[in-house]
């Protein structure tokens, strides 16, 4: 459980954190940046190995202490990303309502995939001569979007749309202190 | 009822025998979480959020329906109750869509607040994917079954409070769904759109269209006032934000007990008519906006040139006591004419007005004469329906054809006034409900019940009781006059009202809305709406109720009283 021990005066080795996003809007990552100047203190203790907002996108093979996932599992690529992050993380954090509960992404579950894609790429009022994209680089939509814990085990749940920056800061600080974070009070939000 | 000794969370206490654990806890200041419970409704123990540990019972028990008895030991907060409550919440979240981020109620939702309290930070079960219908067949509100937790508050409000019994349940188990008239869209059902269900819904399943996303409880203000759409004068809370009226809610403390009708709750804020916003004077055939100064000069000229012999003055009974007084000061005291009431005459002037809505709780016979409360005084109508449901005899007596009467439509046959009076005389606590359609013969016959029955007089105007007190009639004094001053406030300008000003050469119209009469007016003076005004009126219970200003009137608006007193100072 103890992630970092730092006796007085001793140079502390940084713990490694990686983030990635699945079917999300990147708002949770914005909230991560909203930690503001406290980020500087945090980065004294934490090494951000990889994230969608840094040069390196994938978590290192040797693994990280905490992996953070934003977004619901929505495509086959999301499944791959979620499984990779799980394999390479000691603790997996589901960040935001979509990762935790499925959230707004699961609104699509009420419709069939055909209905959904036709509506978005062909029938939408703003579309002219639309076509459903088929590139191999895109993942395939899975039958139903779901929260991360329906695909891989999750250790820490951080709901919110987006989670308050304070809650993210609290969760990381708790991990640094060697405690499993639990969201209560103002840190627990669903909107 | 005798007291019993109980122990709650280790503290001994004495409470009346047989009250529920929830009620006992409330009296002792012990808070127990609830969800399907609502103070205005009968408890049904459906949601299992109020479960507590009780001596002698192996399993937790719902506090809202479990009666206390002597020596009962109750624990309201234990690891077991917390686990059971959390479990109940997890089950609620395992069905339908309870995603807060796109829900109108987020922030004021009772389900959300309980989930926060019990720390639900994940889905305990696979997320549901069924999509249920959204019923948008009602003009002023939407029912989204996807947000519904089947607490049945709406069903109880519909039946127990409004006496309407439109809402019920359809299907069983996980397929259960709230349903109107067995299975009809709300807009095609027997729903009367009173909106009581909106006011009790704990989640975002029932949504008021006008105020949707308009502001959370902590962002809005509530102004206590009275509804002036009819003479029931329901106590209301006008919910406002940034000087805009968002919605109207019934005041649970009022004699209307929180219930309103479609007119008071919705139509009052959704009037499609065009507002009069500026004083106007007709020049070269066209009404043109002018300053107050100029409009009043024009009005004064018309009044002067008519002289008291050629002047008629007519005022709606929807006006406040204060406006009516000012109107009489100007036209009766200063100009020496007899002002008229704009609404239909009331022939029951000499009957006592002694009944209150609360009296219907134990009335055993209700006689309705010349009134159609389910249409014109709906909240009184709902109360009568509840009394009928409880077992009170309900009689509709009329010499006229009244087949369109709301109660007749429920299958009630018409009786003669004589039979009605006889039934009242044979009853212990009869109430006679008299409306403006009762004729003189009928009201004269009803005086036979003066010492035996209570009377509820339903005037056609909100302040009809004060009109009667002032002795004002709708006596067509205006016929054949040169000039008429018509103070209509928000009253309708069609039909009878337009006819009343037929034949006058010039018309001064003082009203909130444009309408057929603006076409004929020579001077038009704008009036603020009820929500923008202050004053009092006397309701059908004889209570003098207060109207408070909830939002400011548009720029440049003058209150009706100010206008009248300005005119008086010029004449």
Oligomer: heterodimer
**Strand order across the biggest sheet of chain B?**
15-14-25-24-23-16-17
Biggest sheet features of chain A:
5 strands, parallel
**Could you describe the largest sheet of chain B, including whether it forms a barrel?**
7 strands, mixed
Tally of individual helices of chain A: 6
Give the class of chain A from helix and strand content and strand pairing. Answer: alpha/beta
Structural class by SSE content of chain B: alpha/beta
Biggest sheet strand line-up of chain A: 2-1-3-5-7
End-to-end separation of chain B: 68 Å
Q: What is the average of the pLDDT values of chain B? A: 93
Query: For the terminal residues of chain A, how far apart are their CA atoms?
Result: 30 Å
Helix percentage range of chain A: 25-40%
Radius of gyration of chain A: 18 Å
Radius of gyration of chain B: 28 Å
The overall pLDDT of chain A, averaged over residues, is 92
Which spans of chain B have pLDDT < 50 for at least 5 consecutive residues? none
Question: How many beta-strand segments of chain A?
Answer: 7
Explain how this protein is built.
The complex is a heterodimer of chains A (191) and B (571). Chain A is 29% helix and 20% strand. Chain A is globular and about 55 Å long. With 191 residues, chain A is α/β, with parallel strands linked by helices. In chain B, 23% of the residues lie in helices and 21% in strands. Chain B has a 7-stranded mixed sheet with strand order 15-14-25-24-23-16-17, covered by helices on one side. Chain B has a 5-stranded mixed sheet with strand order 2-1-5-3-4, with helices on both faces. In chain B, a hairpin with a 2-residue loop joins strand 1 (3-8) and strand 2. In chain B, helix 7 packs across helix 15 (560-570) and helix 8 (321-334) runs parallel beside helix 15. Chains A and B meet through helix 4 of A and helix 3 of B.
């Amino acid at each position: 459980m103890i992630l970092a021990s730092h006796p007085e005066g001793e140079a502390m080795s940084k713990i490694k954190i990686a983030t990635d996003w699945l079917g999300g809007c990147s708002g949770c990552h914005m909230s991560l940046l909203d930690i503001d100047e406290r980020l500087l203190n945090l980065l004294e203790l934490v090494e951000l190995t990889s994230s969608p907002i840094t040069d390196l996108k994938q978590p290192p093979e040797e693994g990280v202490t905490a992996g953070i996932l934003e977004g619901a599992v929505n495509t086959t690529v999301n499944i791959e990303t979620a499984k990779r992050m799980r394999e390479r993380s000691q603790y997996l954090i589901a960040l935001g309502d979509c990762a935790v509960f499925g959230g707004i992404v699961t609104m699509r579950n009420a419709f069939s995939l055909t209905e959904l894609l036709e509506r978005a790429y062909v029938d939408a009022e703003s579309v002219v001569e639309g076509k459903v994209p088929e590139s191999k680089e895109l993942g395939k939509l899975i039958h139903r979007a779901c929260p991360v814990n329906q695909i891989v085990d999750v250790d820490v749940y951080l709901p919110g749309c987006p989670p308050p920056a304070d809650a993210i800061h609290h969760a990381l600080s708790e991990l640094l202190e060697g405690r499993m974070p639990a969201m209560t009070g103002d840190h627990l939000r669903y909107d | 009822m005798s007291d019993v000794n109980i122990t709650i969370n280790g503290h001994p206490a004495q409470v009346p025998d047989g009250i529920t654990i929830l009620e006992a806890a409330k009296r002792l200041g012990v808070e127990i979480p609830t969800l399907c419970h609502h103070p205005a409704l009968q408890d049904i123990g459906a949601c299992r959020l109020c479960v507590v540990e009780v001596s002698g019972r192996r399993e937790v028990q719902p506090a809202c329906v479990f009666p206390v008895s002597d020596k009962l030991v109750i624990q309201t907060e234990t690891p077991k109750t917390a686990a059971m409550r959390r479990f109940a919440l997890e089950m609620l979240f395992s069905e339908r869509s309870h995603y807060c981020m796109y829900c109108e109620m987020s922030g004021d939702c009772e389900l959300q607040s309980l989930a926060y309290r019990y720390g639900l930070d994940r889905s305990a079960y696979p997320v549901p994917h069924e999509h249920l219908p959204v019923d948008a067949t009602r003009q002023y509100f939407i029912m989204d079954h996807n947000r519904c937790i089947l607490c049945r508050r709406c069903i109880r409000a519909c039946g127990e409070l409004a006496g309407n019994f439109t809402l019920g349940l359809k299907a069983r188990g996980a397929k259960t769904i709230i349903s109107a008239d067995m299975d009809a869209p709300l807009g095609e059902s027997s729903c009367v759109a009173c909106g009581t269900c909106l006011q009790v819904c704990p989640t975002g399943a029932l949504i008021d269209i006008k105020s949707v996303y308009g502001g959370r409880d902590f962002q809005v203000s509530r102004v206590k006032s009275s509804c002036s759409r009819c003479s029931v004068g329901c106590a209301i809370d006008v919910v406002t934000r940034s000087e805009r009226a968002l919605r109207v809610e019934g005041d649970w403390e009022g004699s209307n007990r929180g219930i309103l009708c479609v007119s008071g709750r919705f139509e009052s804020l959704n009037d499609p008519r065009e507002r009069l916003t500026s004083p106007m004077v007709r020049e070269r055939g066209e009404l043109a906006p002018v300053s107050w100064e100029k409009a009043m000069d024009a009005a004064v000229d018309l009044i002067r040139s008519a002289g008291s012999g050629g002047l008629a003055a007519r005022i709606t009974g929807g006006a406040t006591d204060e406006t009516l007084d000012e109107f009489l000061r100007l036209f009766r005291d200063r100009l020496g004419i007899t002002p008229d009431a704009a609404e239909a005459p009331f022939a029951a002037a000499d009957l006592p007005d002694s009944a209150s809505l609360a009296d219907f709780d134990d009335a055993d016979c209700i006689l309705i004469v010349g009134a159609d409360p389910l249409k014109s005084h709906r909240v009184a109508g709902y109360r009568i329906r509840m009394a009928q449901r409880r077992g009170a005899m309900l009689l509709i007596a009329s010499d006229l054809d009244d087949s369109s009467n709301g109660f007749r439509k429920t299958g009630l046959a018409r009786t003669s006034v004589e039979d009605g009076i006889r039934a009242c005389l044979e009853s212990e606590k009869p109430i006679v409900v008299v409306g403006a359609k009762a004729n003189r013969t009928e009201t004269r016959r009803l005086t036979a019940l003066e010492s035996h029955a209570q009377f509820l007089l339903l005037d056609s105007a909100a302040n009809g009781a004060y009109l009667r007190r002032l002795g004002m009639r709708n006596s067509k004094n205006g016929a054949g006059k040169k000039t008429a001053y018509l103070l209509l406030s928000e009253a309708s300008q069609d039909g009878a009202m337009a006819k009343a000003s037929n034949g006058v050469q010039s018309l001064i119209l003082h009203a909130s809305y444009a309408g057929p009469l603006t076409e004929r007016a020579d001077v038009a003076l704008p009036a603020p709406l009820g929500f923008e005004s202050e004053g009092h009126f006397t309701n059908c219970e004889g209570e003098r109720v207060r109207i408070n200003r909830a939002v400011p009137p548009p720029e440049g608006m003058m209150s009706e009283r100010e206008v009248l007193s300005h005119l008086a100072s010029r004449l």
